[in-house]
Specification:
By secondary structure, this protein is mainly beta. Helix content is 8%, strand content 33%. It has a single domain (29-136), classed as Jelly Rolls.
Length: 142
């Protein structure tokens, strides 16, 4: 698509998984944008986005294999390894990022990478911790 506004799949706003099987069977996933403006989501919009049942993060955007989510665990981070590669872009808070056997401190503005299938989690994070999460690529990673 060149210029103009992207297609908005507003039916996905309440239930991001709705229609996914049909879209995949056509070998294509419909774009989804949760922000008031296409191609953009603000931190305030991310904080108020609904988290679908069974999920730990809110879906904010989807295009092709890429999804953007908002993640703000409280107390502890119970996540398990994911099927796609992912990048975290820390919005607020501090703590430790455990990635396999490695452990690094993080803070606002930091970018963290976790390969598909790799054990990773956030530990000792502050109460205000929040991060964007970008998943992309094939299952199993690149």
């Amino acid at each position: 698509m060149t210029g103009g506004q992207p297609p908005r799949d507003t039916s996905q706003a309440q239930s991001p998984a709705k229609g996914t099987a049909d879209a995949r069977s056509r070998n294509h996933i419909l774009p989804f944008f949760a922000g008031a403006d296409p191609w953009r989501v603000t931190p305030a919009e991310a904080r108020s986005a609904k988290i679908a049942e069974g999920q730990r993060s809110a879906l904010l955007m989807r295009h092709g294999s890429m999804t953007l989510r908002y993640y703000a665990p409280r107390g502890r981070d119970p996540q398990q390894p994911h099927e796609q590669d992912e990048i975290y872009l820390v919005v607020a808070g501090t703590g430790q990022f455990v990635n396999g056997d490695d452990r690094v401190p993080f803070g606002p503005g930091d970018v963290l990478f976790a390969a598909a299938g790799r054990v990773h989690r956030f530990e000792d994070f502050s109460d205000d911790f929040e991060t964007w999460v970008v998943f992309w690529g094939p299952k199993g990673g690149e």
